[in-house]
Amino acid sequence: MVANPEHMFTNARFAVAVHILTYVAMRGPTHQSITSAMIAESVDTNPVVIRRILGVLHQANLVVSRSGTGGGWMLAQPANTITLLQIYRAVKETPLLSVHRHPPNARCPVGQNMVGILSTYFAQVESVVEKQLECVTIDQITSAIQSRAQTMAPPRSMAKRTAAARRAV
User: Fold this and answer.
1) Could you tell me if 90 and 83 are in contact, meaning their C-beta atoms sit under 8 angstroms apart?
2) What whole-number distance in Å separates Cα of residue 140 and Cα of residue 135?
3) By Cβ atoms counted within 10 A, which residue in 54, 56, 98, 150 is the most buried?
4) Other Cβ atoms closer than 10 A to 9
């Protein structure tokens, strides 16, 4: 049984950051400038959201920008060297799993020990997740997308945009 994506715990900033870097990696070689507006259209969000995440990715040395006419964003290093772990660490604001927001009752044996015990297990889980993320690169994500794209028809809305763009030329 596949989990319902609406009920899954996710770090949306991480997913958007991977999307951004994948888009830049795939579009970069053929386009001189990748703007936040172009990326925002792909992510289907506001360019301000994209610029905020690009700022974080820039601080992590994952992207660089060129200003002026023809400016835009590009990868700061080859796509095959950027791991999902680097991206995760760049955008991570909170631990993957966290304990109570308010301390439990210290007079209760369960409350007394819960934070310490859970913290240990949560750290182990985070370590396993990080080891997995370290094994995947943006290059692998782009390859997976290209492989799927060959077997799938473009979404109807994208097909309409593409046809309209061809007529405009």
Assistant:
1) no
2) 10
3) 54
4) 6
Position 158 scores a pLDDT of 56
Read off φ and ψ for residue 74, nearest 5 degrees: -150, 165
Percent of the chain's residues with pLDDT above 70: 81
Task: Write out the CATH class of domain 5-93+137-168.
Answer: mainly alpha
Q: Which helix (H) or strand (E) holds 140?
A: helix 138-151
d(CA 33, CA 72): 4
Mean pLDDT of the chain: 84
Taking every pair of C-alpha atoms in the chain, what is the biggest distance, in angstroms? Answer: 73
Whole-angstrom Cα distance, residue 64 to residue 10? 27
d(CA 160, CA 156): 6
Cα 46 to Cα 19: distance, rounded to the nearest angstrom: 14
Q: What confidence tens digit (pLDDT) does each residue in 9-54 have?
A: 446 899 999 999 999 999 876 666 799 999 999 999 999 999 999 9
Helices 84-91 & 12-27 angle (0-180, nearest 10): 130
According to the model, what pLDDT value does residue 84 have?
A: 97
DSSP 106-128: TTSHHHHHHHHHHHHHHHHHHHH
